[in-house]
Each structure stands twice: as structure tokens, then as C-alpha cells.
Amino acid sequence: MSDLLSQIQSLTQNNSNKSTSAADQLAEAYKRSQQNRIDVLTNKQKALEQKQQFFNQLKSKIDSLISNIDIFTASNASTKFKIKSVSSSKSDVVTATADKDAILGINSLKVNRLASNDVLITKSLNIGDSQIFSVSGEDLTFKINNKEIKLTIAENSTNEQAMKAIVSAINSANDVNVTASYVKDTSSTGRITITSKDTGQLNKITFDDNGSNVLNSLGLDNINPNAENRTQILTGNQYAYYKVANIEQLNSEIEINGLNISRDSNSISDVLPGLTLNLLKAQESSEQAVTLTTDVNTNGVENLINPILNSYNELIKFLKSNNTITKSESSVGSLLFNIRSISSQSITPLSGSDMKYLTDIGIKINSDGTLSLNDKTKLTKALKNNPDEVANLFTANDGFAKKIEKSIEMLLGDKGLIQSKRKSIGEQIDQTIKRNKEVTASIDKQAENLKKEYMSMLKVYLEAQNQYNTLFTNLSTNNY
After folding, report:
1. If you ran DSSP here, which 8-state letter would residue 229 be given?
2. pLDDT tens-digit series, residues 360-376
3. Sequence-separated (6 or more) residues with CB below 8 Å from residue 191
4. How many CA atoms lie within 13 A of 22 on its CB side?
5. Is the pLDDT reported for residue 331 higher than 90?
6. Under DSSP, is residue 470 helix (H, G, I), strand (E, B) or coil?
């Protein structure tokens, strides 16, 4: 008690304001003396939050890895290793794409003619206001490509008005497979052009006036749409005609390895197995043929396997960069050990094959346990010789993807290690936060009690001092 009184005396010095300040200082001094209790809980919370963040990030890394594993466990996974590529020596003339059925090798191709859209052009009609169309009436019909088209041409319609009505009727019709346009070929005349939507002889334009005299008024009776050579009866650009009279000329024509081939499209996929040819420009007869070279698509396979290698590497790097947790959590340490060992394990080869390690296709195991494809020549050779053997390294029941999947399966799901750890750590964080609040409240309460005790003792002290002063004064006055 004497110590406390001495402290009180030194803090107050008989000053009321200073006494209040001293009480606060006393409370704060007590809080500082108890700060270590709070610090222990705060540090524990931070450590738990760091561990929680670790397991959240671990889940993210594993989710990324799983998404890449799924590619190699799909039913068609092995076919992805059989992709081919094809290059063209004249990509402005023809380009090509290849699928797994493409045959490796070189082909010579010359584009003699591109496939074209059939175009039907009506005769030229004067379009002045006094030029009245020769046909009018409601429910007029004609046929394009055997599809009946109905329209109304108002009485006294000019040629221009009638042609616009005809164009609108054609373009509004369903399944005609053509598009029509009204064109002013001169300042005083106009024509209708009808163009097939698709190229080639199979998409030629046919028509039938159907007794309405609408198409005949446009001069289409000048040609026979059903003839192989649809030449004009009356020749001259002022009359109706097909832009290409010979329907065979609507087809593309190419020469492949000395063989002449005709198709109704500029995209041809039924000539060379596994190749789709895209014709872009016809060549002059004096031009050299295009060389198409089909090879294995090493870049494509590299793009296929790099994501799983990268996500595998990211997981290893992540685990190693969190060495403290890896060592303190036995399950995490086991995961790192198991994951790292997969890259050097053998895989059951296909019958007759001796390819059973990732290193057999040019994949290097780096000193830190990560993997990298550093020998594309080796991979290309393996893909040419037998792509199924390459695929087997990744897609077999004990292949690279399956081994990883098995090593992480215990971590996954609602009852898996990661989820249970996240739940447990979350509960510990909540308990620590609660305990921190309780301890802080207890310290604050005790500090407040100390303030009250101090003020109470101060009051007693001041009253005693006052009594002493009074007594001393009285004694002095009475000469005692």
C-alpha cells in the first residue's frame, strides 16, 4: 500500500487535473503490462490466417492442375496427339488445314479456276417516269430455283418501281438461296441481278415465268435456264443473260499431282485425306504449282502438353516456396514428395514399345523438380514414328495425368484434406478472435477498476491530508 501511495503522490502532486491524468496513465501502464497477452493471440491469428491463405492458394493451384488433367482423361485424348499441320508455298493462292487423318507428305496443286456464284442479269429497261412496266396486277407469280414467288405490281408502275417490287419479293421469299439487287447500269436505265448464295454448278439459278409474263418482261425468255450451255438467243449486253453461260465453269478446277479435279466450292475437303483446301486465287497457266507439305504438328502437341506441365510446375514451386508450412504439415510434405517423384516414374508402354518415360519425348526434369520440353526434335521424331506411344505417356491408366490425379485425390472434395484444413483453421481463427476480444475486454475492465481504486484512494488520501493540515494549523495557533 505504501508503494501505491508513493506512486499516487508522485503522480498527483496535490493537483486535481493531474490526478485524473495520473489515473489514465496508471490504466495505460497496466494495459501496456498486459499487451503481451494480446500480442500472443494476435500473432496466433496472423499465423493461422497465413496458413488459411496457403490452403486457399493450394486449392487454386490444384484446381488449375485438375482442369488440365481432364483433357488427358477424356475419351478422345489420344487423338489430340495425332494432329497434323500443312504449309502452302503460296498462301495467297491456297491455304490448307489438316486433321488427324492427314497423310504426311508433299502434294503439288495448281488452281486453274475458282468456283463462282451463278449470276443472272435481266435486260436493261428505261426508267423514266413515262416508262410503264408491261405487267401489273395482284398475286402475280414466278419461280426461282423451283420456289414460287408472289408479288403485286401496281397499275401504271414505272419500270423502276416494278423492278424494285420484284427484287423485294425475291429477297423476302424463303429457301430460294439467291439474293436480288436493283442496279442502275446507266443514268437512264436499270436492271435486276440475281446471285446465288452458294458457289458451283449445284447452285445454278433456274427460273420459270409461270405464265405471269413478269420474268419475260425482264427479258429472261432470251435464255434457257435448263440448258448445259445457257447462251443468249439475242446477244448483247442490253439483253438478259447469265454471267457464266456454261454451268461447268461455275465449279472450281484444280490440278493435284497431275490430276484434274472439279468441285462446286472453293473449300475442298474430299480430295486429299484429312486435308481441307481453301482456294483463294486462280493461277495463270505459266505459274508454278503450289507445294503443300503435310507434317506432324509439333507446336500443336506442345501447346497441348505445356498447360499440364506448367500447372504441375506451379504446384511444385508453390509448395517449395512455403517451406515452413510444408515441413509443419506432414500431409503437405507428402504431397510435395509424391508429386515430384511422378516425373521420373515409368509408365506402362504400349505393346512392342519401349517408350515409358517423359524424357523419351524430350521433356527434361529440372534440378528443382519442374518439367520443361527442351528437345522438340525428339518430340517430332516420336510423333512421326508413333503418336499413340506419345499419347500413352499422358493418357494411360498409369500415365502422367492419372498419376497426378491419384496423388491429389485425397486432397479434394468436401471431406478432402484441403477442405477439412480450411474448415479447422477457420474455426481456430474464429476462436482466437473471440479469445482476443475477451482478453482485451478483461484488460480494459481491470484498467478501469484500477482507475476507480486509484481515485478512491486519492480521495481518502486528500481527506486525510486536509485533516492533518487543519490539525497542524490549530496546534500552531494554540502554541502547542
Report:
1. B
2. 999 999 999 999 999 99
3. 121, 122, 123, 124, 125, 163, 182, 183, 185
4. 21
5. no
6. helix
* pLDDT over 90, % of the chain: 72
Residue 2 confidence (pLDDT): 46
What is the distance between the alpha carbons of residues 474 and 480, in angstroms, rounded to a whole number?
9
The domain ranges of the chain are 2-33+419-470, 49-80+299-412, 84-110+256-292, 117-249
Q: What is the 3-state secondary structure (H, E, C) of 211-275?
A: CCCHHHHCCHHHCCCCCCECCCCCCCCCCCEECCCEHHHHCEEEEECCEEEEECCCEECCCCCCE
Nine-digit cell string for 181:
439487287
pLDDT range class, residue 1, cuts 50, 70, 90: very low
123: DSSP letter: P
Bridge partners for 373 per DSSP: 363
- How many other CB atoms are there within 10 angstroms of residue 5's CB atom? 13
Nearest of 398, 369, 394 to residue 307 by alpha carbon: 394
- pLDDT exceeds cutoff 60 at 188: yes
What amino acid occupies position 240? Answer: A
**β-strands 259-263, 267-268: how paired?**
unpaired
| SS3 category, 174 | coil
Report d(CA 383, CA 389) in Å as an integer: 8
Q: Which amino acid is at 164?
A: K
pLDDT in tens, 37-51: 988 999 999 988 898
pLDDT confidence of residue 14: 46
* CA distance between the termini of the chain: 32
Task: Pick the closest to residue 48 from 359, 426, 376 (CA basis).
Answer: 426
Does domain 117-249 bear CATH number 3.40.50.720?
A: no
Q: What is the pLDDT of residue 474?
A: 74
Q: What angle do CA 461, 465, 467 make, to 5 degrees?
A: 120
| 471: amino acid identity, one letter | L
Answer yes or no: are the C-beta atoms of 355 and 392 closer than 8 Å. Answer: yes
Cell of 135: 405487267
Residue 162 grid cell: 416494278
Q: Does the pTM exceed 0.70?
A: yes
